[in-house]
Specification:
Radius of gyration: 21 Å
Largest sheet: 8 strands, antiparallel, barrel
Helix content: 10-25%
Strand content: over 45%
Length: about 180
């Protein structure tokens, strides 16, 4: 009987230890704005370029095709204005992977170039349907201050120009490190 109680107590201690370790993981919230410049303007060079052209135009946008692939090196700023202090860069690619709507598979690194996170980065991956009000992508890792990070990023379009395809996207990241 005493042996059975000891095993129950040991199991409870293990469960409590696991719960405390999980609760002890630091949570972090970051907010910044990504400036995706597809069409260059005076003083704003393109930061996103199409590197492959798909074959089938997407409904509602004859200039965008299923299979188009873009590569980006977009600036990240503290606020929605391009003149806001720099935070870093969003570097990666996105293919248009839905035949029915404007949706891409984002694969990018959020590379921090300023402040306390300078030199660190986060890895983000997921589906981004442009016209959804809020899109959720997975944070699947990181390095530096964000080594082993997990969590999610909520993307909201702050500004979009349908003619130039230039956009400013608010990114709210919720992380466990």
């Amino acid at each position: 009987m005493a042996k059975s109680k000891l095993s129950t107590v040991q199991l409870q201690l293990i469960l409590i230890s696991v719960a405390l370790a999980t609760a002890a993981a630091a949570t972090t919230h970051l907010r910044f704005y990504m400036h995706d410049i597809v069409t260059a303007t005076a003083g704003s060079p393109a930061t996103g370029v199409r590197v492959a052209r798909g074959t089938m135009p997407l409904p509602g946008d004859p200039n965008t095709h299923f299979g188009d692939i873009h590569v980006i090196d977009d600036p990240l700023t503290e606020g929605p204005d391009a003149a806001s202090p720099a935070v870093g860069r969003a570097q990666g690619s996105y293919p248009f992977a839905d035949q029915q709507e404007l949706a891409v598979i984002f694969s990018l690194n959020i590379v921090f170039t300023a402040g306390k996170n300078n030199g660190s980065y986060l890895v983000v991956n997921g589906r981004d349907a442009f016209f959804d009000e809020v899109r959720e992508l997975a944070v699947i890792g990181g390095a530096g201050r964000f080594r082993g990070a997990t969590g999610y990023a909520l993307l909201t379009t702050h500004y979009f120009n349908s003619t130039t395809k230039n956009a400013v996207v608010k990114i709210d990241m919720h992380l466990r490190v």
